[in-house]
Amino acid sequence: MDSKLVLYNTLTRRKETFEPLVAGRVGMYVCGPTVYGDPHLGHARPAVTFDLLFRYLKASGYKVRYVRNVTDVGHLEHDADEGEDKIAKKARLEQLEPMEVAHYYTERYHRAMDALNVETPSIEPYASGHIIEQIELIRRILDDGFAYVSNGSVYFDVEKYNGKYRYGRLSGRNLEDIVANTRELDGQSDKRHSYDFALWKKASPEHIMRWPSPWSEGFPGWHMECSAMSMRYLGERFDIHGGGMDLMFPHHECEIAQSTAALGHDSARYWVHNNMITINGQKMGKSLGNFITLGELFAGTHELLAQAYSPMTIRFFVLQAHYRSTLDFSNEALQAAEKGLDRLMKGIEALEKLRPAAASTVNPAELEERCRAAMDDDLNSPMVISALFDWVRTINQIADGRETISEADLDALKRTVHRYAFDILGLRDEKAAGAAAGRDYVTPLVEMLLSMRQDLGASIRLWSIF
Amino acid sequence: MDSKLVLYNTLTRRKETFEPLVAGRVGMYVCGPTVYGDPHLGHARPAVTFDLLFRYLKASGYKVRYVRNVTDVGHLEHDADEGEDKIAKKARLEQLEPMEVAHYYTERYHRAMDALNVETPSIEPYASGHIIEQIELIRRILDDGFAYVSNGSVYFDVEKYNGKYRYGRLSGRNLEDIVANTRELDGQSDKRHSYDFALWKKASPEHIMRWPSPWSEGFPGWHMECSAMSMRYLGERFDIHGGGMDLMFPHHECEIAQSTAALGHDSARYWVHNNMITINGQKMGKSLGNFITLGELFAGTHELLAQAYSPMTIRFFVLQAHYRSTLDFSNEALQAAEKGLDRLMKGIEALEKLRPAAASTVNPAELEERCRAAMDDDLNSPMVISALFDWVRTINQIADGRETISEADLDALKRTVHRYAFDILGLRDEKAAGAAAGRDYVTPLVEMLLSMRQDLGASIRLWSIF
Hints:
four-stranded antiparallel β-sheet
């Protein structure tokens, strides 16, 4: 293997040549969805970003074990850890078994990922399915003296940890600043300090999701699951940890603290974060009226949307920006992406019809080199797309007879274009498939999504009189 | 609700009017796949059978919580419980993380279920994700005195249980016969009697899948997961427990014993079992060379297959037999099913084109009544199909002008046909969709299955040098 991949490591704040711990293999952990609601625009970007990395590592010859979790329990809403478990809350409101809600939304997430041509990871562990592992890890942290038990809950002792290791290395914060910026505890909390975080929470009597533990009937703190599950499936040291930038603090910072407290060293070597999305320049939020689910996007049913956008338009749009740039969704930008994708797919169709000549006036190796160099440079997918577009122009020139290509070069060009457009960028020619079927390519997907919604609608109505 | 559904209850050996514990609601638990290999013909029948029941209960107005588990751990191969954990064994052979194998085959199972138009259940719990619940249940059984600890493992005390409750009620066996038919222990076992079964097994040093417990690092016995997970999601009493007839003994018998030992009463009221499949009159088995996976069936790539059979042909074939009859797969029978399905779908197409007349010479209420009576009579899907075929003839007669139908009756007829053919039998007009797309409807599915196989092939080769 002769990979020259360079990745930006959030932990060191610089681009580093990627070197796996075990030659030829990569262990990668990425934070997956919390399944208490519909998959939305915010889910599309990390999913596509780490799918791109997964695909490129495999295409570069690595054998990758890619673990992406499903958070189906214990997601605390506030940094202060006083928030309610989101899933249990929704379940109580709807009078459903929490796992039925979680299963429903997990299904919808999977369907949306299929539509976006996001490959399934190697292992997809559920937080609720790894309570034992989380309890064992909490025990180790307690044994090492970096946590304390308070009224049935267990909290991480940030100050004590900071004395031996430094808390805040990933996000670049230091404890003094954190202390200065946090309010005093109101005396209602079991925590010693407001910046301590829960490893285990004692369940209140009305809390539905609960498990026995040495400390109380309760549930693990949100940050625990990723430390415990990455350790279980990738070992105490592994290569890449990914996620959205919004997870850097406190989630990933707490993960690092937990793993380091238990192991005495960091677990993940490269921390990779995709940047955030905005909608017409604004942060997405339910209170802002600009919260758009993927189903609404594919169907064009949100009032901010001028039309439906196909899953591949969304994927292409995400890939057109570098993953560390912010990405602004607007009708204009999405329509431009739709046109661009169409142009690329037409170029690939034209490529299939090219006739070889005796000699070449073009050099397809140039495309391979540009694409590879772009991907090796911290996954620069916009540069790959730009190189492909340059070659669409060349393909049209060959078709017009202004350039010529030999049979061997034509084969090489097809291989390169397919490799980058389909295998690595993960695009799919959904329009051609849809046109061949003589119908709108979006409809079947939308029908499926709508029918799932109706099913749940019925569930909610019926169960709520239980 | 005015349901007159009658189900054959294996426990009482007679048809009984179905009465739910809670009016309007049904709790149903069905044994799902063990994910250490490709989905095969044997998986298609229970999946379609209980999908039919799920769909019919919903169509009858019930709100159903349908739980179908995934066995990803602790499936002991032999009744004698000396067998190896199937998944761990495969994983060691392939040098893969067991959960990576389990995830891979779970994915393939889900894809096959999608192809067969089998709806996702309400909750799909993993055995490995419910170790705590299983440990808690074992503790209760130990506390009640119906189990004993031996060398780190826990065994169910069948004799003691049989003294208070009767062991063998479901399968109709009695302990005396079982004793007479089992060989003596060879002195190598930790069990007191050969018919005792493991609730918890201490893991041997080479066993990969293991969890801490009060008794040893180990893993639960296979039967535990269903008792523990049905109790967690459906409560201590629930309506229907389903599965293949091959699971009746020992699996379901042991489930009943476990639940009764812990609770003092049965959990499930109606036990529903689908009968077995054969292939050209023989039992399916790897050693017999007639082990056919669903992928092979859909692609026609097994040497016993004269052609590819589409997922809907398989579904229709399964539904053409009553679920309590044996079902023999042969090329002749499958080709006949393919023709039959085609005739039904053509009839439905013809129905869409019928023109209403001023008055009816036919009575569509007859179809609704026949279909409903058939389904209410222990899910008699062959009778539903027969009624639909009779009406295909009538539809053709209306098209020929030999009969007439009013607009209201035509609407009613369409509703009834759609309801039974699509909503309840769960058929899908894949041929029409495929024809519209101008291509073979099987190809995309097969490509997907083959590409998944290639992916795993690559994994195995690469990981095996690890």
